[in-house]
Automatic annotation (TrEMBL):
Residues 1-162 form the FH2 domain. Pfam families: FH2 (PF02181). SUPFAM superfamilies: Formin homology 2 domain (FH2 domain). PROSITE patterns: FH2. This is FH2 domain-containing protein. InterPro entries: FH2_Formin, FH2_Formin_sf.
Amino acid sequence: MQDLDSIISDLNANKIAHFDIESLRTLKTILPETEEVDALRRYTGEITQLTPACSFFLNLLDIPDYRLRIECMLLRLEFHRVMEDVVPNVHLLKIACTELRKSSSIRRLLLLLVNIGNYLNSSSSHGNAAGFKMSSLWKIIDHKATKGSSSLLHLVAKASYS
């Protein structure tokens, strides 16, 4: 375990090799809150009169952007582990996007939805759309038939199977 002065020195010099993930996470959780920072900045007495913790935090406040430094050091240490988790998911997403782009079924379904939307909006200025926003797909659940409890989603499902 490093002594408090060397921690301050290493943080100030961005010596990331002197820290591990757990120590930086712990340090991040014990950083002073705004009120504590204000109280420390107002302190005008001798530093030697402070407890070691208060002295440490007072010295920490002298480091420019100390919070950001700690977060950046933590991010650098965690980067490879995070990337090991993310890269396979990005690869799967890329494969899924490629499959969707190649799928003739998806194209037919989207064309069907555009045509239904144009029919429903034929009396408005939105009736001749060339496409739609993906976020508007949620609306097909909300459009209900006049009879029964079926929705536009049910109609689209039936039409896509025929």
